[in-house]
Design a protein that fits this description.
By secondary structure, this protein is α/β, with parallel strands linked by helices. 40% of the residues lie in helices and 10% in strands. The chain contains 13 helices and eight strands. A six-stranded mixed beta sheet has the order 3-5-6-7-4-8, with helices on both faces. A two-stranded antiparallel sheet has the order 1-2.
Length: 279
């Protein structure tokens, strides 16, 4: 796997023509049925192509194609509201190493470096530490742990995409898809050496607002252009399995609970820090 040179992202949320904050928001582009700021919407069939949005006659507003394309081509802006840089969290010491997960970490590294379908799905009960395993990998990359660097490269970084960030501010048709495509372009670019993490990935099959996300991801996963880590609970795995086209692109990694003795050892190590914070 190649490594990352820069962190370039695509800023979508702040685009005024997409999030509805532009000065021309009175042209009927909102989905709000009570938005009557433009009483002539639908009757002006000769509207200028520079309008922010138009009505397709069915009451569903659309974003102009040229607006979405301009967003996708703009790859010099950052999107901190969309992607979370785990390397930055490691640098700020907001994420840390974990204990007793060496076997899981080795399996994760092996999966991410396979030639076909280099995507891993962490499966375990709620609270067993699936996200912590991904954070641990990010810390190893940041601290240049030899085995991790040998397998993933010294420039690789991990970015989390909270699925709620895709839905937020995406009420207009096409906004969610444009935001997702910008992320896919970034993760798929070999110059960026990026790994994408999707927590609660089963939402792609259970959340109606995210159904289109699964369809957009399928081609990129089929081409093995992306390295993706997903996580889901044992209970919600059945919902994820409803989409065979997605599930077969991932290798399952079971994350068991720690034993009582392991849990005791972890508590002994974190207790001093907890006491310092309480004081």
């Amino acid at each position: 796997m190649e490594t990352i040179k820069d962190y370039h992202s695509i800023h979508v949320l702040d685009d005024p023509s997409i999030n509805g904050n532009s000065s021309n928001s009175n042209n009927g582009s909102s989905k709000n049925p009570n938005n009557n700021s433009n009483s002539g919407t639908g009757s002006n069939t000769g509207s200028n192509s520079t309008n922010n949005s138009s009505n397709n006659g069915s009451g569903t507003p659309n974003i102009p194609t040229n607006t979405i394309q301009s967003v996708l081509k703009n790859k010099n802006n950052k999107v901190p509201d969309i992607l979370i840089d785990y390397s930055q969290l490691a640098k700020d010491k907001k994420i840390h190493h974990i204990e007793f997960r060496d076997d899981i970490n080795n399996r994760l590294l092996t999966t991410l470096t396979t030639k076909n379908h280099p995507n891993a799905l962490l499966i375990g009960d709620a609270g067993v530490g699936k996200t912590a395993i991904v954070e641990n990998l990010a810390v190893n990359l940041y601290e240049k742990e030899p085995i991790t660097l040998a397998m993933l490269g010294d420039q690789t970084k991990i970015y989390e995409l909270p699925l709620s960030n895709l839905v937020a501010g995406s009420s207009l048709v096409g906004v969610l898809e444009a935001k997702l495509q910008s992320v896919i372009d970034f993760i798929s670019d070999p110059k960026n050496h990026a790994i994408l993490y999707l927590d609660e990935i089963h939402q792609l099959t259970t959340n109606q607002e995210l159904k289109s996300v699964a369809e957009i991801l399928k081609p990129a996963l089929a081409r093995d252009d992306m390295h993706v880590i997903g996580s889901t609970t044992t209970q919600e795995l059945k919902f994820w399995q409803r989409n065979p086209a997605l599930t077969r692109r991932f290798s399952n990694i079971i994350v068991p609970e720690l034993t009582n003795d392991q849990t005791t050892e972890v508590l002994k190590k974190v207790l001093p820090n907890l006491q310092d914070k309480s004081n």
